[in-house]
User: Which sequence fits this backbone?
């Protein structure tokens, strides 16, 4: 089978990502945007395009789009107009989509990710613009009609268009993951590809390495997971290479990928479909983004994953993997940040978040913002361990579950109630060790002769006596001291 | 600009209009007259003038992000040529929306 390598070709991919903005109401009408409602219940006269109705722009849509632009380092367009993109489709009641053409709200910028070999990749953005979503069509089997649900019609979207800077299907998936991470951090889109609140089209072409001309591009549509985007691109590359090796030509077309069969097929495009006859929307007044407004939006932006990660690396001395994990979602990052405001043990804090708390979140299907255990409370436990009052194992297995149940009891009193506070009283421990030494005189002799491995056995005995509550560090030192003393 | 038969057919198709062959001639004439009339605007010197995209001088006419003004489904479907109480119905089509 032909491969990019064997034919000395390279892949060229650009992405178009549609993200539904998580506003309460639609972009040009005050209908609700909630997903999964009864068909045709979130609609009003504007959405239905009744005669005489006029759109009115949702301010938050512009703010959300600007946030995305700022996060990607885009130039924000100060004077915006809207355009009608004309085409007929049953799920588009007006006969045109209200979008932006000449003045996309964000220009330029880019997404920075690590490529499959860890190298840094910068994928430039062409633009980000705002527009409205269309309704949904259902095609019941064996019926002569199509059913139309207009709940989704008019839901706000941003379309993020990259330049054709991606060279590997794995990198396309990484870029998409990064986009999802950013929109989630900004709280402007839930990034749920399965429910269609984030959708991705990929423009795919191949060309001989060294060529500075792009090949004929094929647009892949309707992929509803990040994994599928990667699969579909891989499949499309093979298809294009096969055509080339057979001396056939690649046709610029739109294809859809079926993840079940692993095949793609051409979507029959209606002739002249691309003649959208854009013209300025006369019913919407222009949007001017003032300096004050832009500043206010900048101030409301959370710290972004990339910045957070660097801070976690430098300020808290975390490992690359830990910093990545903790900066991956806003909920986790803010929990961690609050936690380390109460404890200086940054590494232990990271481990608690990535271990017990993540397990809890997974088991209960919770997001970190739903976890009732306050970071301050967890920090109390971490500090209790650091002070040598309790071991990690006891803290995790016994105290932590009680803390999840009862928020108002101090860690100290839980540990006391469970009789867990570590024996770090040297005198008491020393007496116990001396008793153990008397019980095993032979072993003591062997130890003295150099069988130092027996220390573990003595430690086991001591732990048995103290029911595991002896501070291991103090106990080890005391054990050595006592065993050497008897010599 | 001159409208010929091919252009007429193309824009009729884009507008989903069916024009009878006997109407094409008069339609071409009408469209050309309209265009010629509008082309008088080309005489105006517009150098340095920004394109006008809106008749109102208003800017930033926003709506706050609040939900209201829904209509009930029964009313929404009432005027449709075909519907089933839940959905609008249209003659079956296949393919996908382009957005």
Assistant:
């Amino acid at each position: 089978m032909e491969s990019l390598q064997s034919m000395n070709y390279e892949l060229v991919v650009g992405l178009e990502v549609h993200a539904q903005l998580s506003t309460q109401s639609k972009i040009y009408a005050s209908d609700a945007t909630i997903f999964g409602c009864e068909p045709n219940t979130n609609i009003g006269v504007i959405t239905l395009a009744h005669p005489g109705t006029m759109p009115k722009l949702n301010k938050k849509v512009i703010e959300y789009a600007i946030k995305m632009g700022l996060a990607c380092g885009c130039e924000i367009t100060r004077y915006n107009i809207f355009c009608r993109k004309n085409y007929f489709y049953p799920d588009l009641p007006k006969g045109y989509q209200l979008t932006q053409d000449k003045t996309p709200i964000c220009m330029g910028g880019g997404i920075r990710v690590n490529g499959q070999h860890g190298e840094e990749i910068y994928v430039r953005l062409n633009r980000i613009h705002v527009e409205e979503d269309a309704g949904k069509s259902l095609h019941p089997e064996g019926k002569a009609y199509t059913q139309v649900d207009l709940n989704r019609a008019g839901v706000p979207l941003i379309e993020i268009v990259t330049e054709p800077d991606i060279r590997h299907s794995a990198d396309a998936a990484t870029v998409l993951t990064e986009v999802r991470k950013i929109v989630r951090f900004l709280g402007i889109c839930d990034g749920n590809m399965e429910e269609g609140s984030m959708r991705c089209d990929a423009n795919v072409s191949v060309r001989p390495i060294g060529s500075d001309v792009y090949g004929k591009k094929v647009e892949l549509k309707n992929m509803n997971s990040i994994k599928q985007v990667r699969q579909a691109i891989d499949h499309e590359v093979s298809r294009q290479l096969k055509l080339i090796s057979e001396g056939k030509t690649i046709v610029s077309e739109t294809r859809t990928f079926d993840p079940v069969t692993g095949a793609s097929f051409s979507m029959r495009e209606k002739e002249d479909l691309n003649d959208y006859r854009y013209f300025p929307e006369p019913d919407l007044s222009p949007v001017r983004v003032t300096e004050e407004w832009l500043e206010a939006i900048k101030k409301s932006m959370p710290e972004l994953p990339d910045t957070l990660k660097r801070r976690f690396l430098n300020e808290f001395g975390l490992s690359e993997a830990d910093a990545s994990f903790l900066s991956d979602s806003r909920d986790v990052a803010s929990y961690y940040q609050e936690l380390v405001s109460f404890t200086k043990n940054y590494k232990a804090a990271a481990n608690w978040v990535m271990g017990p708390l993540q397990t809890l979140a997974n088991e209960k299907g919770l997001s970190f913002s739903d976890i009732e255990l306050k970071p301050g409370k967890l920090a109390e436990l971490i500090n209790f361990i650091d002070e040598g009052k309790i071991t990690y194992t006891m803290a995790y297995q016994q105290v932590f579950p009680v803390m999840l149940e009862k928020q108002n009891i101090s860690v100290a009193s839980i540990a006391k109630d469970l009789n867990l506070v570590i024996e770090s009283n040297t005198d008491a421990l020393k007496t116990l060790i001396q008793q153990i030494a008397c019980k095993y005189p032979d072993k003591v002799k062997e130890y003295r002769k150099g069988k130092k491995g027996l220390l573990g056995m003595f430690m086991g005995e001591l732990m048995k006596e103290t029911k595991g509550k002896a501070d291991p560090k103090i106990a080890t030192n005391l054990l050595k001291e006592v065993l050497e003393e008897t010599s | 600009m001159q409208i010929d038969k091919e252009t007429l057919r193309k824009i009729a198709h884009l507008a989903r209009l069916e024009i009878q062959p006997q109407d094409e001639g008069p339609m071409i004439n009408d469209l050309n007259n309209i265009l010629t009339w509008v082309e008088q605007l080309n005489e105006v010197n517009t150098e340095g003038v920004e394109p006008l995209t809106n008749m109102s001088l208003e800017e930033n006419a926003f709506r706050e992000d609040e939900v209201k003004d829904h209509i009930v489904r029964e009313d929404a479907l009432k005027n449709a040529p075909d519907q089933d109480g839940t959905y609008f119905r249209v003659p079956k089509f296949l393919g996908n929306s382009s957005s």
Notes: The radius of gyration of chain A is 31 Å. Chain A touches chain B through 66 residues (CB under 8 Å).
